[in-house]
Amino acid sequence: MARYTGPKWKQSRRENYDLFGDNKWRKRGTLPGVHPVQKGRPSNYSIQFREKQKVKRMYGVLEKQFRNTYNQAIKATGNTGLRLLQLLELRLDNVVYKMGLAKNIFQARQFVTHGHIRVNGQKASIPSQTIKVGDEVAYSPKFTKSTVVQVIAAENKAAKKITPKWLEHGKVAMLPSREMMDQGIREQLIIELYSRQ
Hints:
Layout: H1 8-15, H2 44-59, H3 63-75, H4 80-89, H5 92-98, H6 105-113, E1 117-119, E2 122-124, E3 137-139, H7 141-144, H8 147-159, E4 167-168, E5 171-172, H9 187-195
Antiparallel strand pairs: 1-2, 1-3, 4-5
Helix pairs in contact: 2-9, 3-4, 4-9, 5-6
């Protein structure tokens, strides 16, 4: 299955949620389309499925990648839903984005695949790589001098971008707790969806 390359606001509208935090979407009472069909009360399956689609789109992952992440989460000890979200948050592309090294998750993935990112000083080119506590993430020395990096730094400063508490000084300081992650995600619905399959 190919990645979606169309307008991002359409995905936000479909999920009725600001997926990318870019404020280019406003909540509406109708579904997308010229003549949207208003259906009755959604089934439990429909609610669970839409929640999974929402989270997949937020992190920019495909179904197979999401399923693999879920399988990793159920093998871990503790709360499966929390571990699922932690694994998604600790993806290299997401860490690059949350650190403010890229404008959005899509640009972060591009930086990684193009070899502009270093993890503990070593070149990293796999967006799905799981970053561990203590790992340092930064631009490559050459890329640091580029115009695009200067623009990102200026925009972060102007917007007073706040880095999550689990990321400090270009390093993963701790595992993100549930309070540090998006409160609009209902991860238990995703666990229920996969457990019934």
